[in-house]
Structure formats: C-alpha cells, structure tokens
Design goal:
paz domain, Rossmann fold
Length: 896
Amino acid sequence: MIEVETETAEGIRIVAGGTTSAVTDPDHLGVTEAHVEIGSESLAEAEAEAEVVTKEMPRDQICPSYQTTFPYPKALDRYLIQTSKFEELFEFRFRVPEDSQIKGSDKVSTQQLARVLMTKAVTGFLGDNFVFDGVSLGWSPTPIVPVGEAQSNIVELEKRRDGKPNSVEVSVRSTGTLPIATLVGYIQGGKIDLNPAGNESIENILKWIQAVFRKDPATRFITRPNSSAYFDRSPETTMMLRSTKNVLEARRGVYQSMQIRFGRITLNVDTATTPFWVPGVCLIDTACALMGTQTGRLEGGFLANPEKFFVACGRLRGSFFNIRHLTSAKKDKKIRLTGFSQRNAIESTFEERVGDDESTTKLTSVSDYFERKYGIKLQFPRLPLASTRFGDFPLEVCFSADGERYKEVLQGQETADFIKFATAPAYERKNQIQHGLRLLSHHAVPTIAAHGFKVNNTMMSVKARILPAPRLTYGGNRPMTPRDGRWNLRGLKFLRPSTIKSWVIVYVPARQPLDNNQLERFGSEMVRSFTDCGMTVPREGPPIIVGNPYGNLTQVVQDSIARAHNNFGTRPDVIFIILQGASVPIYKTLKAGLDVHEGIASQVMLQEKALSGRGSAQYLANIAMKVNVKLGGTNCIAEEPLFKSGRCMLLGGDISHAAPGALRSVNPPPSTAALVGTWDRECTAYTAVASVQESLLGFIANVKPMMAELLKRYAEKNNGSYPQHIVYYRDGVSESEFQEIKTEEGRKLHELCQELGAQTKITIIVAIKRHHTRFFADRDIASKLGNVPCGTVVENSSTINDAFIIAHPDLQGTKRPTRYVTIVDENNLGADAFQRLTFNLCSSYARATTSVAVCPPVYYADQACERARLHLMDADDGKMKLGPVHANLRWNMYWQ
C-alpha cells in the first residue's frame, strides 16, 4: 500500500489554508517516511510511530548564545490522499511528426494536440481512464500499446477556411511503466525539500498525479490549459465590478494542486479569484466603459483623440468574442481580438465575389457589405474595426465571449472593488475552501479511483511555533515591544532623526484649488509633527508653489528650488508635492526629474488624504517616517543578535517586468532589476543600484557589477572593510528557478567576493509570496478574523531552512504567509537564527508602525525596481536606457 498525504491549501489550523496550505508538525519533520510508506503498514500505524519522534531544532552557528523556548499551537491543513499500490502504471508519449502530416494540413501546436486527444477517435482508443499532461505525456493503468512500440492514428480536424481537409497523424508510443517507488524513495531519503527539477522520473510522477486530479474539473469548469484554478459563473461566486460600468466581473473559483510540502505529497485546495469580461456585452459598450464616455459620444471622442481610444481599448487585446450576425451554427464561435485596424468600416474595403463566378469581384466597403449582406446599417461606421486572423469586424457585431479572463492590470477603483470581493475573514475563507472541495467531488470521479487515489476530506492537523516579538529601539534608547505586530509612535522619537534646513511645497491642483491659508496651516502642522518625531526643521513652514498640471512641470520644479533658496539660503533638502487626484504622468515627470537631474528628495501626497482634516497627526507622522529615511535618518532598529556577531550586510533583489499590454507591443520595454544593500552596523540604512535587462528574464543579468558597486559603497562607509556575512533575500523566484538563481546570481556573488579578496560568507534566501498556503488557528489563539497570531512559523523541511512565516497583524481577509527558502547557506544559519532574523526584520520596515508581511530587503528591492522604471528614457539605438540616480541620493532611501 502506498499512502500519500496531500494538502489542500486550506490551512493550518493553526490551519494552513488557502492554497498550498498543508502544514506539517515540526515534531514530525524528521520522519517523512512515516507519511509515505511502501508495504503493509497502515497510515494509522505510521502516524502512531511518528507521534513518538521528536526533532531537535538545529543550533545557530553565528549566535549560539541565543536560546528561547517557543510554544507549539495546534495547526491544521491539507488533505490526506490514499493510493493503492499499482503493479504497473503505463506511460505514453505523443507527438505529431511534421514529416508525417497529411499534405495540406496546418501545423499542429501543443494546444491543438491536446484537442486532438479529446476527439472521439482518440479517446475511444485511449480509454476512459487515460490522463494527459497537456503537452506530450500520458498515463493509463492499462497497457494501450505494448511497451516500446508505437501506434499511429489519422485524426480529422475541423476543415480549413478554404474548405480543404485538415487531418494529422498522431503517434502514441509506450515508454514503459512509471517508477512510482522512485518518488517514495526520494521522499524517504529526505530529498523532497526543494523542487525536483532535473529529475525526469520524479517530475513525470508529479505530472501524472496532477493530470489525474485535473482531468475531471477541466471538463466541468472554466479553466486554462494546465491551470490549477477552476471557475463557474453563479450568483454566489460572481460580482460585477461596477467601477468598470459592468463590463468586468470578479469570479471566485476553486484552486487545487498537488505539491511537495512538509516532507510529503499534498493536495492543496484553496479559493482563486480572477476578473473576467462579462459575457454577452457588445464591444461598443465595452469601449464606452473603458473610455469613460457615453454611447452617443464614443465616435466623436475617437475622432477627437484616437490615441486615447487605442490605449483604453488596448485592454481588450487578446480576448475572445462572439459575432452575432452569422448563422446560428457559427455565431457562437470564439474569435481572438488581436488589435484594432487603422481604418474604419467606410475606409476598409475588400474584393467581394459576385455571383457564382469566383473570378468576378467588386470593391466593397465593410459598411456597405454588412448593410447589403445582413441588413445591418452600422451605427458607428467611423470607429476602428476589431482585427482578428479571420479578418476585421465592426465592434457593434462583436460580443464578449463567456469564460474570458481579463489579462491586464486593474486600475484605480477597479482594484479596490476586486479586493473587497476577493478577501474574506479566515473562518469564511475556510468555509469557501471546504465548499470548493465538495465541488471537486473527488470521491465521485471514476478516473481518480481507477488510478488508485482516495481523498480524505478532513484537513490535516499540524503544529507551528510562535516567535517572540522583537525588541525595538527608538530615540533616547527607548525600547518598544510590538503587541500583535503593532505599536504607536506617540511619545517616541526617531533613533537618528534627520535635519531639514530648506524645504518647499509644490501644489498641483487638477480642479478648483485650495486657498493658500489651508496650505499654510498644513505647513505649520508639518513643523509640529516632524518636530514631535525628533526631526530638526525650520520654524517657518515650507513656502508654497502652485503648479499647472498641464503646464511645464520641469519649470515648476525649478521655481520651487529657487523659492526655497530665497527663503532659507540653500537648495531644498526635500520637496513636498501635493496632487489633487492621482496622476501617473505627473508623478513620473516630477520623480524622474528630482531623482535623476536635481538629486533632491521628494515626497508626494494626495490632497484627499493630506488635507482631509481627519487623522492629520497620524498621517503626518507616517510622512515623517518616510522623509526621515529619505534624508539619511534612522527611525528605529530591531535588535538582532546576528548583527552583533560581525560585519553584516542585508541584501534584497528583485526584477520588475512591464505590464502585459506593454509586453505585447512591437518593441516591449525592458525589465528593471534592483539590488538594495545595507551599509551600517545595525543593517537599517540601505543604498540601491538598478539596471535594465531583457524583458521577462528571470535572473538579474548584471548582478556582478551591481553587487560590486554595493560592496564598494559598504567599504567606503566601513573603513575599507567588506562585510563578513551577507544575507541575500531574493524576491520573484519560483521553485523551478531555484537552481538558476544559485548559478546565475549566487555563483557570481561568490566569484566577486573572491576577486575582491573579501572573506564574505553568503546566504541566499528566496521569499515566495505567490502561493496558495493559508493557516487557520484554533479558537483559543485565533484573532477576531480567525487568523493565526503574528509570529507564527510552520516549517516546511527538516533538512534545510524552509518555512512559512506570518509576520503581520490582521488587516483584512485571511493572512497570507510568506515562504522563505534557503538555497545557499555559507553562514550555516540554524533554524532559530534563520526564522528569528527574518521575523525581526519585518518589524524594521521604515514606513510603518506595524510588522509587515515580507521582510524589508524584499520590499525595498521591489520599490527600487518600480522607481527605476520611472527613470527609463529613450536611447540612441532605439531601445530604452536607465537614467542614473543623482549622486546626492545614492546613500539615501529615495525610493521610499
């Protein structure tokens, strides 16, 4: 009997929930063999044996004096899957040889091959219990063809547009039996900690399990090829996004995925929420919503500003629609919109065939053709046409298809509406997950049973540790210990407050501006609030410059610098910018100018928040925290034993890619990469370097020269010495990219240290935020929302530092833990040091008085990436280059 535990993302109970949420009991971490057994032992016997095994936490290598006992609250998550032992499970490989395609056939893509395998001719041959990975591999509990042999079938596809036949030859070859025992041995050998990329046998076994559990929901729900999320459209799971004029809706579906977690194979079940285009909406109405106009003004608006139309409606690119003017047999056919034509229905013409003679044609406009052929007089003939590979169509005959995901980034209020629907308290999220499990109905799926699986619908129960809150130090060596991840600045001063000798406010109103008296009162409040935090500022509030949002903003900046110089005798240390309504173009112009050309720190504020009259003291205290670090100050430090053991450097790395719409352009913008690193003893002062690289490249291409600059700056501030320890937190990495990061970044950092003669030991920790693991706490320790306590840690491995850490307090919805995985560890951090360091850092985020969900090096690297994107400019070769940050700002956290 092979027994495999799977997790459902539901949560630890503490409950691991959500998505990949099976959590393991730390007491069981050293006995993964008790959870995956070959032989006659029952699961109950294996678990009974596991209960008496305890695991000693590894001691810290750098800080051996640190000892703390942690409580282990009850935690629960994941589902148990039992499988019968197969004597044989057969694996098959599929392909459509190009040289064997019938003459005249279209080339068969991977997606088409998947559809070919769903045809009756093929499914009848393969059998009901055959499963396919969506690419080239398939599995069956019965031998379809003898091992080592191949069989070919001719499959007729849908006829081509010219009416010619479209048939392909599909070759099915049996590659042998699937070595399931290999996976069991892999787990029992303690090698299950990292993604098994590169081990083909293990990868194929995991693909098989995924395929078994995906086959049924993929036929019953809306999904994408090889996706783990499944959606249905019902009143209970769908909400119109009214901020989009009801052309977009949010749908909540169910997520399931087989994953190697907590020393076992788990089935992760969670909720998944995604925006969709509302089906059946005419693209004219969609265009009006995206343009923010009414139907009667759409055509005139396009003629007045074509660029606005193409930008706004570019969000439709790539989506599918139906065309209603065709016969009933074709009107439900989905067609992908590839873009918009430059000519309208009157200007766009083609040669229309006249009568039965194919050689007789006449030039016809699209507008005339629709009126004569279908009796449709176009109401918007001057609008661009929807372009597809089948031709161009008027927007008014196109209607959004069902099941079409919205692929762009939501904007403004759309995001707020979506988040409101997607978030749910932990107790509600848990119920949603259990509802999703019932929808999947694993017990009623014949294929799952045929492959020997059975799902236990009870979440797994695990344990977790709760770390003590860190000790923070503010000005005057005043200590502060967060409570539930929160604290207040009242009565506290910054540890190292900065000094402002000259400052100015630039006010950019979009509508009716405020009068000067209101702005002057706000300036006086700034003086009081900043002084309360310990900063030294002029007694006189900042002078005020009013800028025209449609005017020359560069000149506005120059005017503000001159005004500050006249008032205080020196250029401003910081420029405050108050915008009336968020404006990305204005923000980008001002920030890029001040960061690159002027070298002056800046702080943007929204009038709606800054001058609302509500909570102004708290708001300005938050602004003071940001401004203080932008000017080189330090708000507070979180005490960490690791920093006292030698010269340490915290490093954060991230890559920012352009939006999906921009990536589909002819010349897609490059990705921006950033590294941030500390240079002070307490590891709170960061400096940043950034670069541009090829779009969508997964590793930091220029990591070596970027790191060389950071080490140069570190040595400059530390009497020529390099750090003894580097802890590098890397963001934006999936499990399949671990090895690439070790090779492309870790190896180059190690080479650099050797070249510089630096005796530096490097630890690389990957922070993974995008996952479906959630934890749910027992009532005795749960918050009002049902969440686990701040400081909860659930270990994912017994052999490496790999853990889920929940560092933040309740905000809204169910807490999402961050998974931290050590992929390089020359510092030999023990589990205690690794977890304590990461958790303590979460309380040192410069712009918050709460512990944050992801440790600051990751946040700062992400922010530095996004700021670098504002510095992109055109280069002489037609590509884009990065404008260098002014030397005045290189030591300060200007990106805050």
